[in-house]
Design brief:
Layout lengths: L5 E5 L3 H12 L3 E5 L3 H20 L5 H9 L1 E3 L11 E4 L5 H12 L7 E4 L6 H5 L8 E5 L9 E6 L5 H13 L3 E6 L6 H4 L1 H12 L5 H10 L7 H8 L1 H14 L10 H8 L13 E3 L2 E3 L14 E4 L4 H13 L3 E2 L10 E4 L6 H8 L6 E4 L11 E5 L5 H11 L6 E4 L7 H17 L5 H12 L6 H8 L1 H15 L8 H9 L13
Parallel strand pairs: 1-2, 1-4, 2-3, 4-5, 5-6, 7-8, 11-12, 11-13, 13-14, 15-16
Antiparallel strand pairs: 6-7, 9-10, 14-15
Helix pairs in contact: 2-3, 8-10, 8-16, 16-18, 16-19
Length: 511
């Protein structure tokens, strides 16, 4: 395997500077070049300040800080890369620019020098085809900010030598990062897996199911994510996120699961980009997100009767336990009395579908999302149909908030909010595994570290919530909506049929 001691970094922007920092800190000599010589000087000064700050906090010694800076050499031209064992480009995301750069580098570097691209969206195979020796070209995709985001994707192009990727995997570990291996497909692992959250969140908002802040609150406080889709989009910026959504959709030849939203297109055109412009899905004052006041729970009406629909066994069991804890007056009858609140617990259905299937009184029927559990303090979600009367909506809100637990009341939606978004996340990750883009372990690790998703990553999350329940939500949503975006991945469907974990690799493979 190739021994790497000297690393060339081309591009002195945020990504190049970050890669140079972790490489120098790990003891590697770094050759830093940018077409703008002032950018290289600025990068070295920024690194000096960073290392001085770390030394001041006791995270490294003053000697280590000075030694790290000494390892970063400012290069006046590309010829300085002749000593490099590896060159990592972190230049503009244009295929023609990267191809031209690698072609130029081939005449400068040693025959066994590895050429790596930090691209987040371009094909490694397409970049490598410009080279006389494409076997030494691979992807080495870091995430911003590089020192804090501890995952790096190693991408094998169609002509990449396996030893090229092996060397990059070992180097990533030496630099204190966790490497994950992917084959060359649009979005690689992390940007591919991220489609489920953002795109389904946008589709949910487009259907007027709930306002942006409530969708985010549900994903945080019910499903357990660090951020909801709109907080994440505002953080990244629509000028970055929306083109990626369009690009991945087009690169997968209009795959319905990745269909972008006109909401993002319109807001992007209006320069409502997020935090960087002071307004996106939220307004920001002095960098602080401005949130509307949460609706207070109404007063609980005296003598409220509840009839709990028995149509979904898991949902019924969880809801019955909660209603007992709340001291609710639950009516045990085969059909709902004329004066009782009707509570249904669908997985993947909307309230209208349940009402229509079972001939319930739509004016008194409310959906309760039991999919993620109903513990006290964990946000609960209620769903009204177009027929639900306000007094029954308010009675349900009051009841399910009576133990001081926050409640979101949303409009009718196949799959509530979190059910549909989480099912989409698990389904996309399952299909990444089905296409052998990466191993199940690398998918979970990449997404957990790169996107901060809970429960160890999307496949582990699917197992924890119940792969059979995820499959049920998707199948029901596809039936209710007729939208092929919800069709289950064969990986998910077959593992449920066989009683396997979503993280299990096939015991039998084609040969």
């Amino acid at each position: 395997m190739k021994s790497i001691k000297v690393i060339g970094v081309i591009g002195a922007g945020a990504m190049g500077r970050g890669i140079a920092q972790i490489a120098a800190q790990a003891g590697f000599e770094v050759l830093l070049f940018d077409l703008n010589a002032q950018a290289v000087d600025a990068a070295r000064e920024s690194l000096r300040q960073m290392w001085d700050k770390l030394a001041g906090k006791g995270k490294m010694t003053a000697a280590q800080a000075a030694e790290s800076l000494d390892r970063v050499a400012a290069c006046a031209d590309l010829q300085a890369m002749s000593r490099a064992d590896l060159v990592i480009e972190a230049v503009v995301e244009r295929l023609d620019v990267k191809c031209a750069l690698f072609k130029q580098l081939e005449d400068i570097v040693a025959p066994d020098c590895i050429l790596a691209s930090n691209t987040s969206s371009l094909s490694i195979t397409a970049i490598a085809q410009a080279c006389a020796n494409p076997a030494r070209v691979a992807g080495f995709h870091f995430f911003n900010p590089v020192p804090l985001m501890k995952v790096v994707e190693v991408i094998d192009g169609l002509r990449s030598d396996a030893q090229t990727g092996d060397a990059l995997m070992a180097l990533a570990r030496d630099m204190g990062h966790t490497p994950v291996r992917a084959k060359d497909m649009p979005g690689f692992i992390v940007n591919h897996a991220g489609r489920g959250m953002n795109i389904e969140g946008l589709k949910t908002a487009q259907e007027s199911v709930a306002p942006y802040d409530q969708i985010d609150a549900i994903m945080r406080e019910q499903a357990g994510f660090r951020m909801g889709p709109f907080e994440l989009l505002d953080l990244t910026g629509l000028d970055v996120s929306h083109p990626v959504m369009e690009s991945i959709y087009q690169q997968f030849y209009d795959e319905p699961r990745f269909r972008p939203s006109p909401i993002a297109a319109v807001r992007s055109a209006g320069r409502l980009l997020g935090r960087k412009t002071g307004e996106g899905f939220y307004r920001y004052a002095d960098g602080q997100k401005q949130l509307p006041a949460e609706a207070e729970a109404p007063a609980l009406p005296d003598g409220l009767k509840v009839w709990l629909a028995p149509y979904h066994s898991s949902g019924h069991r969880r809801a019955a336990a909660l209603l007992k804890n709340l001291g609710a007056q639950v009516i045990a009858a085969e059909t709902p009395p004329a004066d009782a609140l009707i509570v249904v617990t669908p997985y993947g259905e909307d309230v209208a579908s349940v009402v229509g299937s079972h001939q319930l009184d739509g004016e008194r029927t409310i959906g309760l999302d039991t999919f993620f559990g109903l513990e006290q303090g964990k946000r609960r979600v209620l769903m009204c149909s177009a027929a639900t009367l306000p007094q029954w909506r308010d009675a349900a809100h009051a009841l399910f908030a009576s133990d001081a637990t926050p409640v979101s009341v949303i409009a009718d939606s196949a799959g509530f909010v979190a059910q549909r978004i989480v099912a989409s996340i698990v389904n996309v990750a399952s299909d990444i595994a089905q296409q052998s883009i990466a191993t199940p372990a690398d998918i979970d690790q990449a997404v957990s570290l790169g996107l901060g998703y809970p429960q160890g990553g999307p496949l582990a999350m699917g197992d924890s919530l119940g792969a059979a329940h995820i499959l049920e939500v998707l199948r029901t949503m596809q039936r209710v909506t007729g939208d092929m975006r919800y069709r289950p991945s064969p990986w998910l469907q077959r593992r449920v049929q066989l009683g396997l974990s979503l993280r299990d690799e096939p015991a039998c493979v084609a040969r």
